[in-house]
Amino acid sequence: MRTLFFVDDLPTTVGSTYEFNNDDALHAIRVLRTKSGDDFNLSDGKGNWSHVQAKEVHKKHMTVELLETGHQDALGTHFTIIQAIPKGDRIKEAIELCTEGGADRIVMWKAARSIGKSDDKIEKLQTTAREASKQSRRFRIPEVMGVAATNAVVDQIAQADLAIVFHESATMKISEVVAPGCTKVAIIIGPEGGLTDDEIETFAAAGAKVALMGRPVLRSAHAGLAALSAVNTALSVW
Q: Can you tell me the distance from the alpha carbon of 115 to that of 106, in angstroms, rounded to the nearest whole number?
């Protein structure tokens, strides 16, 4: 699979040349050692892509020729991960894993037991999602939002066809709560200290299903990817 880079002004005319000169170009030249004749993909992060070939490579930019262009439609199921803010660098890890797992939107949530902070990090976390999208060859960069209060999570539940709260005390399995045909899915991941009883009751009252992810108790930063994998499989998206 071809390497992917993002640009704001995606070229779309086959046969034309384009000056690739942003930070991604610098990475391609200095780190990946891209040379004349190499081909790769450019994308605007919104589903549009262009297959290009390097023609002239300079120290900080390169001229590429557009070989092919296209558009990748979004999947029929839209996934929102509502992630309680984990501590330290795990917040970045959570964004990376959820992006690689196919999340369309990641909402940072200030849960009652959240230790970490992300109020001043949303822009950086959006950059993290962008970088993870390149790594996973995604033509669509997920939106990172926040910081949401619990009442905003209730609003997200109301907008979803299926909302799932994962908790170790649950008795229902994922396979018992996932119904075919869901197109808007919200997945709620609690913090390291766990969800409070009030939070579980509030979300359940709003229509969310409380489910068990399995016997192992995962780190908060890892649970989103596991949940996405399980629900994608249950819905036959994967």
A: 18
